[in-house]
Amino acid sequence: MNKKKEEKNIHLFEGWTFSKKNYVLGGIGLATIIFGYVIMASGTVNSFRSLTLAPIMLFIGYLIIIPIALIYRDKKKK
Prior knowledge:
Strand content: under 5%
Helix content: over 70%
Distance between the termini: 30 Å
Number of strands: 0
């Protein structure tokens, strides 16, 4: 019984490594976040870039691209 449980745990975490695509998506997300902060810091306080464009980029980076990079898994070929 104990041996079956150990085998199940081994197979559960076997495919949880990140692939190259995960790292690329994470890099794109990080670049989007950095670019959003740069846009927010540049320009005047009440400009379109600081009040609208930069928060949208930060939202996309933090809540869309980074989670996709963490969750995405390649389809295994049979």
